[in-house]
Amino acid sequence: MATPGEEPEAPAEQVDIACGLENLPVSTWPPGSAPEPFQYTPDHVAGPGADVDPALLTVPGCACLHEPCRAGTCPCLRHGDSYDDDGRLRDAGSAAGCARPVFECNALCRCPERCRTRVVQRGLRAPLQVFRTAAKGWGVRALARVPRGRFVCQYAGEVLGGAEARRRVRAQTPRDANYVLAVRERARAGPLLETFVDPARVGNVGRFLNHSCEPNLVMVPVRVDSMVPKLALFAARDISPGEELSYDYSGRFLNATGSDAEAGPDDGTPRKPCYCGARACAAVLPYDSSLYRPAEGPDAT
């Protein structure tokens, strides 16, 4: 409270870390606080070593001009309907064993912008806030109820080549936060598809999401204009206003995997503690040992 003769203290200016690039502002708490500087992008950008520029149109469009896009008639839905009529992910929160490919209609499609397959590309629909947690640094919470299956946000950043991703991880000190995420997909007996994303320097609100051993979000690769997937996070259950948002950094939540990437460090590096507070907490954060192995293939350095 100002004393006589003093100017009253001006209220802290509300910060939008999205810089107006999202449908909704992304606020911070406490008011006037802000995380470390970074360049905001709502979508992936090409980084060093990327095989494909994620901004290039590489997925053909449909010709559904007079009829709604439906599985069986729309080529974008050759793997089935991914969303219900309310735009919610059909398989969210189900123990299906593995994630089904998700494709959305894109910029080359002749269907209208209101097509129900266009979900992730429409951006944020729920208000989000980046806030200071008690023990985990910055986190993200929903400011409104988010129903199960609803799209929340992407994990967007620089798309890297494998060698660059490993170089960045190896350059980190034990005190550095790791933002590099490796997503691996395999379609039946097809080749292994790897996508490496780093939002440390260029990224979106997803870079502030914390890990939980019992998360309320599930990550699903979604392809729109490019075969480089958008790493979309959907509500795995109903989420209450003010509840912190989290996902499983290992990718194992609701997604069976035979990967050995979770093997512990073999160089004596201590594992970082997990503070998620879940009843089934593993006590340490997931560890992707593949990012510390020597690179193989044409992009090896």
Q: What would you note in describing this structure?
A:
It is a single chain. The protein has 301 residues and is mainly beta. The strands form 3 sheets. A 5-stranded mixed sheet has the order 1-5-6-14-11, with no helix packed on it. Strands 2, 3, 8, 9 and 10 form a 5-stranded mixed sheet that branches. The radius of gyration is 20 Å and the shape is globular.
Count of individual helical segments = 1
State which percent range the strand residues make up: 15-25%
Rg result: 20 Å
N-to-C span: 60 Å
Assembly state (oligomeric)? single chain
Low-confidence stretches: none
Order of helices and strands: EEEEEEEEHEEEEEE
Kindly state the number of beta strands.
Answer: 14
Instruction: Please outline the major beta sheet.
Output: 5 strands, mixed
Structural class: mainly beta
General shape: globular
Question: How are the SSEs placed, and which strands pair?
Answer:
Elements: E1 27-29, E2 39-40, E3 45-46, E4 102-103, E5 128-132, E6 138-142, E7 151-154, E8 157-160, H1 162-170, E9 181-186, E10 192-203, E11 210-211, E12 217-223, E13 230-235, E14 244-247
Parallel strand pairs: 1-5, 2-10, 3-8, 4-12, 11-14
Antiparallel strand pairs: 5-6, 6-14, 7-13, 8-10, 9-10, 12-13
